Amino acid sequence: MSISFEIEATNGCARLGRLKTPHGLVETPVFMPVGTVASVKGVSQDILEELGVQILLGNTYHLYLRPGVERVRQLGGLHRFMAWPRAILTDSGGFQVFSLNELRQVSEEGVKFRSHLDGSSHFFTPESAMEAQIGLGADIIMAFDECTEHPADRERVRQSMELTLRWAERSKKYFEGHKNEVPWSRPSSVVDRRLEDQLQALFGIVQGGMDLALRKESAERLIEIEFPGYAIGGLSVGEPRALTRAVVEATLEHLPSDKPRYLMGVGTPEEIVEYAGMGVDMMDCVLPTRAARHGLLFTSGGRVSIKQARYAGDEAPLDANCGCRVCQSYSRAYLRHLYAANEVLAQVLNTVHNLSFYLDTMRAVRHSIALGNKVQLFPGEQSLAEP
Amino acid sequence: MSISFEIEATNGCARLGRLKTPHGLVETPVFMPVGTVASVKGVSQDILEELGVQILLGNTYHLYLRPGVERVRQLGGLHRFMAWPRAILTDSGGFQVFSLNELRQVSEEGVKFRSHLDGSSHFFTPESAMEAQIGLGADIIMAFDECTEHPADRERVRQSMELTLRWAERSKKYFEGHKNEVPWSRPSSVVDRRLEDQLQALFGIVQGGMDLALRKESAERLIEIEFPGYAIGGLSVGEPRALTRAVVEATLEHLPSDKPRYLMGVGTPEEIVEYAGMGVDMMDCVLPTRAARHGLLFTSGGRVSIKQARYAGDEAPLDANCGCRVCQSYSRAYLRHLYAANEVLAQVLNTVHNLSFYLDTMRAVRHSIALGNKVQLFPGEQSLAEP
Known about the structure:
- Two copies of one chain form a homodimer.
- By secondary structure, chain A is α/β, with parallel strands linked by helices.
- Helix content of chain A is 41%, strand content 18%.
- The first copy, chain A, has 15 helices and 16 strands.
- Chain A has helices spanning 45-51, 60-65, 69-74, 78-82, 94-100, 126-136, 154-178, 212-225, 241-252, 269-278, 287-293, 325-329, 332-340, 344-371, 380-385; strands at residues 4-11, 14-21, 24-28, 30-32, 55-58, 87-90, 105-106, 111-114, 121-124, 140-142, 201-206, 230-232, 261-263, 282-284, 296-299, 302-305.
- The interface between A and B is large, with 38 and 37 residues.
């Protein structure tokens, strides 16, 4: 047993699903907050639980460098290490090697790269990336892939896609041979007995750049290898948003409807709603947490740049329609003051609100799918009540 | 009505008291966490409430510079501005002018100083410091004083003490004439009606350097002016701890036993227990919060420097005897990782724990006084059970 996925309702292309993982249920479509190095920056795990986060994303690249996979493994895996009882997904490290390393060297065997922390040299292969992710012990782990740069010519994109497919096979092969090494199964583990016999799930990643034919081929050949879930990778790499949308839409057509579909690294509130409407089940993005640190807040009335002087005397809550603990307690004037005074609490509160907004957005999307309503941002009570 | 103070039990010199303020009860001896610019760095107000914080300290100097007194006043005062329903005390600004401004110019009229933020020039007088503290609207405010430098010769200390006494009279005079201008009483205020007719309390500050005779004179002449509470200022300015202790002990003898006694700017856990045992009722210090930011944590087993590599694989809680949400959830290994990875959550969690430790320490002190036991750090169950 690793994961199971059931679709409870559909609405056009959109799907309402239940993804069962060894660490609990995930209602889809779901937004996964990013906890890069085993922490969603500034927010403690009890608050994440209170916000209703059902699954967190951890970055294998960062965790591999610090605190190190062996350390986390010895401490019982990521869940126990960071005291997070719910589901976790780790990425493959491929995207970070791509985005944080200008001097990376890709070969058939794997990728040589330098640590962004200390410049030390490292080598990731599909096998070592699997070993790392098994040691970290997330519920869902990702095949090692090459994130193709953009723009790239068709031949380069094809070669990169082919490499990712070969790496997907190697990832699966290694995983199948070592999946029982997940740290939950350690005899000394004090983790809940219900985790016995529970395994991780390995998802494949579709690549193929912005070429729809290559995306189709990548999807079809990945499905032949067979994974319990499929991700769309290699987007949000500098291409225009309309192109992202077109590639997502075209790729989704070729992914099996009975398996979870994960679109990596998107997006704005408008985008996550749109992609959910297109049939994406899982998404992650640093936007809500990173924007929060820069004082950019998402509200039902649109974006608020809380650093602006216009908010210095504003007694209203950030978002009168938001039930989060920040909007229930604090004024815009106070949030603006904290940001202007460079207080750490600004980051904490801004992050809590932005995450709450994203999670509320996805809750509303799931509600709309269940009711058969149009999946849109802020459907409003009236449209929710429509037949 | 401003404050009332009742002593419920005594134990040697130590006193168990109930300080009633317009914003709730404060059980003494009490430790007041420092929320310099209307925020205890990194910790949200609901967590402070959960920790049992009954009174916070705000720094007038910092709040005057940012966000500005008029801003806070227009927003209903500090309580409403920062959404803190319990008691607040603001200092006079005298200590910060002293410690953050090497180029300050002191005259009979007041102190000219430059902002540590932008170098702009400002002038504090006893009257303007009262005006600022009335506008901020804390429950307890402090007379404007000169914090005498150390070391200083006797004549300089006497002159400084005399200046502080004249400033105390001017502070009281201004306060008496303007105390009804506290922002709670604004007709437009939506604050709880029980605050009607409630006023701030102005405390006087004893100075006199390290000279016990001058401390005695300062205390006696301050008592003649008459305040509802008395503070001991001008300590922790570089003198040895034994000298601090001697000055505190000698000064306490000359303070009225029926009024709250506030020792400003101390100390370590050992010190706050010792001073409470000597009869101090109120204390504040940046130590627990500042140390937390540097990874120095106070535990029942002594200090822990969480940055040390020895904790990298340590699965134990920071303090097995601590009931705070940090010690209940996270391992030393995780806290060490957060600190080493420079994660903001390190500061948040470390601060929550250190504050919890200080507040628990004072709870234990109050318990010991009530039971007639020796007031000491970690009395343990056995000594608490002794007759």
